[in-house]
Amino acid sequence: MKSWALVVLLCLGYGLLTSSLQARPMWSNLILTHHWPSTFCSVQHCHSTFDYWTLHGLWPNLGQECNSSWHFNETLIQDLLPDMNKSWPDLKKPGSSKFWKYEWQKHGTCAAKAESLNSQHKYFDKALELYHKLDLDGVLKSVNIVPSETYYMFDHIEGKGENFQILGQIEICFNSDFQLDDCVHDETDTVTLTDFLNVKGTGFRVCDHSKPVYYPPLKGKPSM
Predict the structure, then answer these.
(1) Tell me: the pLDDT tens digits for 7-50?
(2) Of 93, 89, 83, 64, which Cα lies nearest the Cα of 126?
(3) Does 2 reside within a domain?
(4) What is the rounded CA–CA span in Å between residue 27 and residue 144?
(5) Active-site residue numbers?
(6) Which of 27, 4, 33, 2 has the alpha carbon at shortest distance from 131?
(7) Keywords on this record (predicted)?
(8) Assigned domain for 220 exists
(9) Which domain does 82 fall in, by range?
(10) What is the pLDDT of residue 9?
(11) Count of the separate structural domains present in the chain
C-alpha cells in the first residue's frame, strides 16, 4: 500500500464537512473510489452479497454536474455491463443502472472535459480499467489485511463505539495521464478532498490515525 502515491481511507463515526462550489477550469486529478459493501450496507440498510471492494466512482477534482443535458444512456455501454454489474454494482439495487446514471451526471460529465474521457463509454471503461489494474483486494490480501473481527491499527492498512472506526471507503489519486499521483487539494478547488471523502448522509470521514480500524466481514460469512 505504501507504494501508492496517495491512499485515503474513510471510516464511519464522525460528522460531515462541507465545501463550496464555484465554476473552475479543467480538472487536474482523478480519484478512483472504492467502497466496502459490508460497511456501506450497514449505513444504507441494504443486504450485500459482495465480499470484495467494489467501485464507487471516478471523480475529477474540479466540478460537479458539468453538463445537465448530457443524459446517461445505458445502450452506449452494453459491452461493459457484465463487468459493471460485477465491479461497479448498485449495492442498494443490484442490477439497476440508477447508480451509474448518478455517477455519470455528477462526475462523468466533468471528467469528460478531457478528450481521453469524452464519452460515456470512455469514462466507464477507464474506471473499470484502473479498478482492475490496482486490484485493491489483492493488494490488501498480499499484506494480510483481510476482513476480520479483530481490529487493525491504521498504519497497518495505510502502507463498535467511540474507541474505534469502521473502514468504509478507500480512494486513490491519479493525474490526467492516469498515473498514480500525490493529490494536492487547496481551498479553491470546487470539490475538496473532504468532499470526496464524505458520502452525503452516511457519516463517512477521513479515518483517524490514532484509533483502531474495524474491517468488517460480510454479514453471515466467517472472517478470514
Answers:
(1) 678 787 543 333 333 445 689 999 999 999 999 998 888 988 99
(2) 83
(3) no
(4) 35
(5) 56, 103, 107
(6) 33
(7) Disulfide bond, Signal
(8) no
(9) 7-214
(10) 82
(11) 1
